[in-house]
Amino acid sequence: MLEGFVPWPKERTKQYRENGCWEGITLGEMLSQRAEQFPNRIVISAYGEQVTYRQLDDKTDELASGFQQLGIEKEDRVVVQLPNWIEFIETCFALYKIGALPVFALPSHRYVEISYFCKFTEAKAYICPKFYNSFDYETLAKRVKSETASLQHIILVGDDAEDCVSFSALYAKKSLQTTDVKSSDVAFLQLSGGSTGLSKLIPRTHDEYIYTLKRSVEICHVTEKTRFLVVLPIAHNYPMSSPGFLGIIYGGGRIILSDGSSPDEAFPLIEKEQVTMCALVPPIAIHWLSVARNRQEDLSSLEVLLVGGSKLSAEVAKKIAPTFGCQLQQVFGMAEGLVNYTRLDDPEDLVVQTQGRPLSPYDEVKVVDENDQEVPRNAVGHLLTRGPYTIQGYYKAPEHNAKAFTKDGFYRTGDLVSINDLGYLTVEGRNKDQINRGGEKIAAEEVENHLLAHPSVLDVAIVAMPDEYLGEKSCAFVILKDEKIKKRELKAFLRERGLASYKIPDRIEWIDAFPKTHLGKVSKKDLRKYIQEKLNDQKSKVSVKG
Ligand code: OOB
């Protein structure tokens, strides 16, 4: 068993097998089964290329064999940082087939994140583009490799470079050596949004992940006719599995890949590929709504738009079905496991007002107060959960796990929710030190630590501030030492350290001293209130003037 993985207790393992949640197949076997069932059906259509189920299965065998020849073995970690490209999907399956674990980085991650993932997981290889979206990944990769003892290979997709392995040269014609990959093995490491320090890594097993695919396919009505457009970063748990590209493969549908989510990129693809389903975060849904009526493309093939990752306001939710002529399905999920969906036959008020109910009848959800006592139905409290696909612990994080999980194995989600009489959840807030920037999660403490490294900064506290489009943005309150510096110098400092740009504070406020709680801790609640009022004031001044 992978070191640092916390397994489910024996009796629950037995239960989930006996009740059929865990089917006993691996993700690699799932693909091979589909290739047997419908060899000539198209599984991916992207960038002018079409790949059939048979071709995908064969190509991932070849790639897996190429990885083996590089010395990548079962349980080796491989940091994968690729855009929404066919190579991403191939890489996943090739690694699953040999039991090596992808660590899913996002294309927006930079030196800080990548070096941490490589070092913490003791990765053997790092797979990235040479250059993408004006960023030179090759230089980043070489720097990280020179500093990381475990890292033996940089594998570049798209181009060749000195001292790097070329991805395209890896499709080996040599036959794949069988590896004993079990369905109970960890398949990959996903990233958590994080709330303390650096993001934690989430080990997901084949068994439980395939169960989420199976249930998502049922709930989202994925069939062979489904054409699913991926516009969000494909490595994120949501476009991966809710129902995501993996769910589409489970259900025998077709995946269409888009490099970005802008209407200019996505709308022509919806028309051309006759897309039936797409998963969005609220800011993208808002943007699509605002332009849809003035566009020429025919979007009438759309049947379902999923929206999740951060809170969708009921006002926006109401407009989706009439504007796009399709159904809205809300998703409230987390890379740690639990996923909730509104159902496609739900009445409008549930679809618009709530974030759905758990995917599985075996999900256990509890809403508790500060003392872990359950609150009455419909009251707001902390969401705790355990079940057949919610992890029992983060990877190699025993101290954090002791706080993030209860003794009886419930995960403390950090979300404040209420549950109605029908069992539907509404997200009411959060009690984790995190900013949800339109679905992208920022751990306040991580960015605070980087700011504290600046010689002029005495202390710092980062909080969420409301934003019409993203829902939330980040605001850093900074106490300076004597020297005066400019706000943009602080932002540049973070960028130069190699922090992903979505984590750079949207706003910086100088402050002389922090408001304190009764216990003497920094009162982030007061800081949030302060910035909210300041923004309201500024808004009312603008509207008086305007
Ligand atoms: C998804 O996963 P993560 O791991 O990036 O973030 C999980 C957190 C949740 O704990 C919650 O705070 C927030 O994101 N969240 C929502 C939400 N969906 C996620 N908050 C309000 N409303 C929603 N609909 O974000 C994720 C994973 C799988 C499917 C969908 C989203």
Brief summary:
The protein has 546 residues and is α/β, with parallel strands linked by helices. 34% of the residues lie in helices and 25% in strands. The chain has a domain at 434-545: GMP Synthetase, Chain A, domain 3 (2-Layer Sandwich), CATH 3.30.300.30.
Question: What's the structural blueprint in terms of helices and strands?
Answer:
Elements: H1 10-18, H2 27-37, E1 42-46, E2 49-52, H3 53-69, E3 77-80, H4 86-98, E4 101-104, H5 111-121, E5 125-129, E6 131-132, E7 135-136, H6 137-147, E8 153-157, E9 165-166, E10 186-191, E11 201-205, H7 206-219, E12 227-230, H8 237-241, H9 244-251, E13 254-257, H10 263-273, E14 277-280, H11 282-292, E15 304-308, H12 314-324, E16 327-334, E17 337-341, H13 348-353, E18 357-358, E19 364-368, E20 381-386, H14 398-404, E21 411-419, E22 425-430, E23 434-437, E24 440-443, H15 444-452, E25 457-467, E26 471-480, H16 487-497, E27 507-510, H17 524-545
Parallel strand pairs: 1-13, 3-4, 3-5, 5-8, 8-9, 12-13, 12-14, 14-15, 15-16, 26-27
Antiparallel strand pairs: 1-2, 6-7, 10-11, 16-17, 17-18, 19-20, 20-21, 21-22, 23-24, 25-26
Helix pairs in contact: 2-3, 2-4, 3-4, 5-6, 7-9, 11-12
Bound molecules: 5'-O-[(R)-(benzoyloxy)(hydroxy)phosphoryl]adenosine (OOB).
5'-O-[(R)-(benzoyloxy)(hydroxy)phosphoryl]adenosine binds at residues 193, 237-238, 242, 308-311, 330-335, 339, 355, 413, 415, 427, 430, 436, 439, 441.
The ligands bound in this entry are: 5'-O-[(R)-(benzoyloxy)(hydroxy)phosphoryl]adenosine
Strand order of the largest sheet: 2-1-13-12-14-15-16-17-18
Average pLDDT over all residues: 96
Number of helices: 17
Q: Find the structural class using helix and strand composition.
A: alpha/beta
Measured by DSSP, the beta-strand proportion falls in 15-25%
CATH fold assignment of one domain:
GMP Synthetase, Chain A, domain 3
Q: Share of helix among residues? A: 25-40%
> What is the CATH architecture annotation of one domain?
2-Layer Sandwich
Describe the sheet with the most strands.
9 strands, mixed
Considering the protein shown, what is the CATH homologous superfamily of one domain?
ANL, C-terminal domain
- Report Rg: 23 Å
Report the span from N to C terminus: 64 Å
Poorly predicted ranges (pLDDT <50, ≥5 residues)? none
The coarse silhouette is globular
Q: Count of DSSP E strands?
A: 27
What is the CATH first-level class name of one domain?
Alpha Beta
